[in-house]
């Protein structure tokens, strides 16, 4: 299997582990199984201590861990500088980061504030562009960048509001980045994950109802797990997907195809 994936000893940056429920942690577990070296970025000290604990609990070792606040250009530049010094070449980046103000996920979308709109876009969509720009010089052997999206990018999911518009921008940014970076053999794709109970999901009102509805309606008649998103991320980073770029791939038990 390792031969097929060609990820053994490859350096992959995973951004966004807040705890063991994070989608980014599901991704990291898949990467470890494929023999990759995993480099983590975190924002808050609290996330660092959780990350250190779950690595220890699972007897896994990070190649490198560095702080990176994606709202801050200097922080992104500094993080990737340190990653370059620690790892040299990198082969992939998983952007599993998003945030919006809680008040912008309550009430009507029409009441979104200018500042709240800009903040959601900055954190959840622009950050991918800046991250790709800083990662590119380190991806000298080509590679793969993955971002996490959600169905709210293309359909109205009440309560997802400003984040839906940010995810629409993220998916579009994936296509433009795929065009820019294709000449460097760097592929850029998004995964549209089904609803998963994580810290970020707590901010979405009526999340339980969403989970129930998906469980009843999706072709697979269930919700998905962070591990399933992790495995598809692995596939999209690996040699198996070398002909795929600019795509949004659904890992949602088929929910998106339903009318
Ligand atoms: P999570 O809360 O575990 O992860 C979100 C991460 O974003 C956290 O680690 C947090 O520290 C990080 N983050 C927020 N602001 C940041 C900043 N300024 N700088 C650096 N990091 C920052 O939740 P999750 O559900 O695993 O979310 C990961 C990604 O998956 C997000 O893009 C989310 O929108 C997406 N997603 C989640 C679901 C779901 O149902 N959970 C569904 C589809 C897509």
Keywords:
15% strand; alpha/beta; Rossmann fold; 259 residues; globular; fatty acid metabolism; SDR_fam; binds nicotinamide-adenine-dinucleotide; seven-stranded parallel β-sheet; enoyl-[acyl-carrier-protein] reductase (NADH) activity
Written overview of the protein:
A 7-stranded parallel sheet has the order 3-2-1-4-5-6-7, sandwiched between helices. It has 259 residues and is an alpha/beta fold. It has helices at 2-5, 23-33, 45-57, 73-87, 114-135, 161-181, 207-217, 226-237, and strands at 11-15, 37-42, 64-67, 92-95, 143-149, 186-193, 248-251. The protein contains 8 helices and 7 strands; from the N terminus they run αβαβαβαβαβαβααβ. Nicotinamide-adenine-dinucleotide is lined by residues 16-18, 22-24, 43, 47, 68-71, 96-99, 123, 148-150, 193, 195-196, 198-201. InterPro entries: Enoyl-ACP_Rdtase_NADH, NAD(P)-bd_dom_sf, SDR_fam. Its EC number is 1.3.1.9. Keywords: Fatty acid biosynthesis, Fatty acid metabolism, Lipid biosynthesis, Lipid metabolism, NAD, Oxidoreductase.
List the helices and strands and how they pair.
Elements: H1 2-5, E1 11-15, H2 23-33, E2 37-42, H3 45-57, E3 64-67, H4 73-87, E4 92-95, H5 114-135, E5 143-149, H6 161-181, E6 186-193, H7 207-217, H8 226-237, E7 248-251
Helix pairs in contact: 2-8, 4-5, 5-6
The structure holds nicotinamide-adenine-dinucleotide.
């Amino acid at each position: 299997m390792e031969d097929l994936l060609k990820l053994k000893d490859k350096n992959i940056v995973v951004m966004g582990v807040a705890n063991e429920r994070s989608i980014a942690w599901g991704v990291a577990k898949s990467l470890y199984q494929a023999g990759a070296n995993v480099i983590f970025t975190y924002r808050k000290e609290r996330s660092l201590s959780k990350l250190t604990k779950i690595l220890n609990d699972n007897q896994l070792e990070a190649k490198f861990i560095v702080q990176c606040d994606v709202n801050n250009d200097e922080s992104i530049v500094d993080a990737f500088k340190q990653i370059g010094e620690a790892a040299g070449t990198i082969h992939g980046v998983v952007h599993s980061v998003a945030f919006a103000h809680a008040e912008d996920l309550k009430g009507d979308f029409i009441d979104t504030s200018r500042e709240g709109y800009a903040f959601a876009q900055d954190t959840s969509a622009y950050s991918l562009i800046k991250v790709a720009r800083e990662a590119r010089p380190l991806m000298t052997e080509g590679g793969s960048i993955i971002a996490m999206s959600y169905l709210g990018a293309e359909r109205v999911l009440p309560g997802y509001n400003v984040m839906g518009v940010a995810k629409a921008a993220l998916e579009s940014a994936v296509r433009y980045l795929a065009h820019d970076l294709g000449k460097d053999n760097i592929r850029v794709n998004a995964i549209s994950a089904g609803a998963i109970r994580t810290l970020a999901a707590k901010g979405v009102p009526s999340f339980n109802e969403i989970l129930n509805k998906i469980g009843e309606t999706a072709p697979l008649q269930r919700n998905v797990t962070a591990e399933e998103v992790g495995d598809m991320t692995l596939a999209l980073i690996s040699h198996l997907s070398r002909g795929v770029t600019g795509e949004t791939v659904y890992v949602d038990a088929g929910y998106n195809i339903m009318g």
